[in-house]
Amino acid sequence: MAAIEKQIAAARSLPHRGPQFLTIQSHLQSPRLPFIYAHDQSRTCIGQGDGVFEAARRAFSRWAMFDLGWVCVANPSASIVNGQIVAVEVHSLGLWSLNLSRIVEVVDNPARFGFLYATTTLHVEQGEERFLLDLDPATGEVWYELEAVSRPQSPLARIGLPITRAFQHRFARDSHRRMKQVTLQSSR
Known about the structure:
By secondary structure, this protein is of the alpha+beta class. It has helices spanning about 1-10, 50-60, 155-160, 160-185, and strands at about 40-50, 70-75, 85-90, 95-110, 110-120, 125-135, 140-150. Helix content is about 30%, strand content about 35%. The protein starts with a helix and ends with a helix. The model has no long low-confidence stretch (mean pLDDT about 90).
């Protein structure tokens, strides 16, 4: 754990890498991405009503969307605030990686909660990822949305691009499933 804390401390002084493609309020800003950047977006209705929205908000604060068994947040006491470093551990194919990103935007109002983070140089990818909860005032539906723009940054991620992409898709599927499960349990 000391090694992880040391990397988190080092990441605090690093700028985020790459151009800005996303904002917390809107989707991809440019329809044309530079070469090798991938754009992923997924959205799931995780329930209905204020109780589900509040349960999902609490789950976000515990980083439940990353609590997948093979992925977790290494600094789970981190708050969802601008400037916060988020350290994500990934265990796959017998490999381990620690990926550090910085929260660059936060939204917190009665119908929307979430954040956008940008990768640092201590991440295998370069890009941004948006995690968002929306409460539709007309229907009461609660939506969980992930949106990411990224490209491989480390040589290993570049070499294994098809595998890297498969894990990105797996993360999105597992994260949506986890949020639906956690909010259903918590809102009962």
